[in-house]
Design brief:
The SWAP complex consists of NPM1, NCL, PARP1 and SWAP70. The chain is 69% helix and 9% strand. By secondary structure, it is α+β, with helices and mostly antiparallel strands. The radius of gyration is 74 Å and the shape is flat.
């Protein structure tokens, strides 16, 4: 069932990608249920395609519904051709090329179904060059033409440089263009496509006209036989419209050749558990082909193997997977080798740099060593020269010292002679010193007398200087006192002037205050006169009435409330009289 599901998914994928599921998802799901003979589930369908934001109408949301409610319920009792035709109808109009093709729409449909069978099990669907070559070879063989391997190799090279494989519509364009069927008419190509379609899709292992002997009347009737992996069906004609019966094949069936009899030739017998069928082929070649094909089918049933074309496809697929795995493993190993090589290169580069650094250090050390050696040689030469010079100088000094020694000895002799002379001179000097001592004592006495007189003169001079300094100090003090008095006098004069100004300002202020007092007095006198004239209130202040007094903002009032009412009446009367 897994293989069947994969085959169905490929056709559904074309229809699925060609439709807008928001509008046509219900149509696709309904059609799938119809052609696959799956019971409808309207509730699940409406729930899935409900028109709201939470509905799972999306490329991701549709697949769970498809698996759960459709594909898992498929039993295999459906017409594969009808199913593929429904999917083809939904996607062909949108994707089929508009350019004219050498094949009919029916042939294009069959090529599309063959593509789904041969394509890889990954999406988007493509058919790889190996499967394209297999299909083109089958078509060329069915057309009876020779296979042009060199032509396909050129095409394969051009294809590999641009893409991994072809889509279904590109494959239809390739076969419909006639690129690999040149010289063949459209009918031949159509027949070849139909033959390959019957073999790969309808599992038709062999088909053709043969005579069959009836079980009741025992007469021989020509029928169109179709051999499939587990059944032989026979029809009235090759249009497959009027089916007459089936021969069910299983592992217990067998086929054997029969001798000619009753005027019939090329006979063979198919034995089953319940029935046996006698069949007559048109010639010995056909007979042998049919026997071999039926026997191969029975052997496959006994072994539980798939049909030859499916087994071959599986082997090609496994081979490609193996080659791909080997290629990936090779690429992985190449990457590992490349990585290892890069690491080695890096290590070698590091070692090279280290060697270069070591060589540079060695060269620098060698250079320093040579320089040191040269310096040592120069220093040794200098020291050697210096030692020679020192030795030469020492020799010269020794010679000079010898000469000086001779001179010294001569000098000693001279000094001894001089010593004798000095002894004599010392005696003379001693006498001279005694005379000098006498003279010195006389000079000392004279100096003492002179020193005493000088001290007395200095004392008198010092007293005179002190007297002069005292006179100068007193004069300076008097001058300072005079300056202080003059400064005090100036300050007193300034204070006097300031007091005079302040006196004048005080007089001016006094005059102004006096004027203001006179004006205030005049104003007060005029105010009292006005009050006395208008109100007649001038009277002596007397003790107030014992009645309660009014309180104003300035304190107790000078009249009672009754007096206030009386005066108000008086004012109102005067006011009325004046008006």
């Amino acid at each position: 069932m897994v293989g069947l599901k994969e085959e169905l998914l490929k056709s559904i994928w074309h229809a699925f990608t060609a439709l807008d599921l928001d509008r046509s998802g219900k149509v696709l799901s309904h059609n799938l249920c119809t052609v696959l003979n799956v019971p409808h589930d309207p509730v699940a369908l409406e729930e899935h395609f409900r028109d709201d934001d939470e509905g799972p109408v999306s490329n991701q949301g549709y697949m769970p519904y498809l698996n759960k409610f459709i594909l898992e319920r498929v039993q295999g009792n459906f017409d594969k051709v009808e199913f593929n035709r429904m999917c083809w109808t939904l996607c062909a109009k949108k994707n089929l090329s508009k350019s004219p093709l050498l094949i009919s729409d029916e042939d294009a449909f069959k090529v599309w179904v063959i593509f789904n069978f041969l394509s890889e099990d990954k999406y988007p669907l493509i058919i790889v060059p190996e499967e394209i070559e297999y299909l083109l070879k089958k078509l060329t063989e069915a057309m009876g033409a020779g296979w042009q391997q060199e032509q396909f190799d050129h095409y394969k090279i051009a294809l590999n440089t641009s893409q991994e494989g072809l889509s279904a519509w590109e494959l239809i364009d390739l076969i419909g263009s006639g690129q690999f069927s040149k010289g063949m008419d459209g009918q031949t190509v159509s027949m070849a496509i139909n033959e390959v379609f019957n073999e790969l899709i309808l599992d038709v292992l062999k088909q053709g006209y043969m005579l069959k002997k009836g079980h009741k009347r025992k007469n021989w009737t020509e029928r169109w036989f179709v051999l499939k992996p587990n059944i032989i069906s026979y029809y009235v004609s090759e249009d497959l419209k009027d089916k007459k019966g089936d021969i069910i094949l299983d592992s217990n069936c067998c086929v054997e050749a029969l001798p000619d009899k009753d005027g019939k030739k090329c006979l063979f017998l198919i034995k089953c558990l319940d029935k046996s069928f006698e069949i007559s082929a048109s010639d010995k070649k056909k007979k042998q082909e049919w026997i071999q094909a039926i026997q191969t089918t029975v052997n496959l049933l006994r072994a539980g193997s798939p049909p030859p074309h499916k087994e071959a496809r599986q082997k090609r697929k496994e081979l490609r997977q193996k080659l791909l795995a080997e290629q990936e493993e090779l690429e992985r190993q190449m990457k590992e080798l490349q990585t290892a090589n890069e690491n080695k290169q890096k290590e070698l580069e590091t070692v090279r740099k280290q060697l270069e650094a070591a060589a540079a250090r060695a060269a620098e050390e060698e250079k320093k060593r040579l320089q040191t050696q040269v310096e040592l040689q120069d220093r040794f030469s200098l020291e050697l020269e210096r030692e020679k010079m020192v030795r030469q100088k020492m020799e010269e000094q020794v010679a000079q010292k010898s000469s000086e020694l001779e001179q010294y000895l001569q000098r000693v002799r001279e000094l001894e002679e001089m010593y004798k002379q000095l002894q004599e001179a010392l005696e003379d000097e001693k006498q001279a010193r005694q005379d000098e001592e006498t003279v010195r004592k006389l000079q000392a006495r004279l100096l003492e007398e002179e020193s005493a007189k000088r001290a007395e003169l200095e004392k008198w001079h010092l007293q005179q200087q002190q007297t002069i300094q005292m006179t100068e100090a007193e004069k300076q003090e008097l001058e300072n006192q005079r300056m202080i008095k003059e400064q005090a006098l100036q300050v007193a004069m300034q204070q006097l002037e300031q007091l005079e100004l302040e006196r004048k300002e005080a007089l001016e202020q006094y005059e102004e205050v006096k004027k203001k007092l006179e004006m205030a007095a005049n104003n007060t006198k005029s105010w009292k006169d006005k009050v006395a004239h208008h109100e007649g209130l001038i009277r002596l202040i007397e003790p107030g009435s014992k009645n309660p007094h009014l309180i104003t903002n300035w304190g107790p009032a000078a009249f009672t409330e009754a007096e206030l009412e009386q005066r108000q009446k008086s004012w109102k009367g005067k006011k009325a009289t004046s008006e």
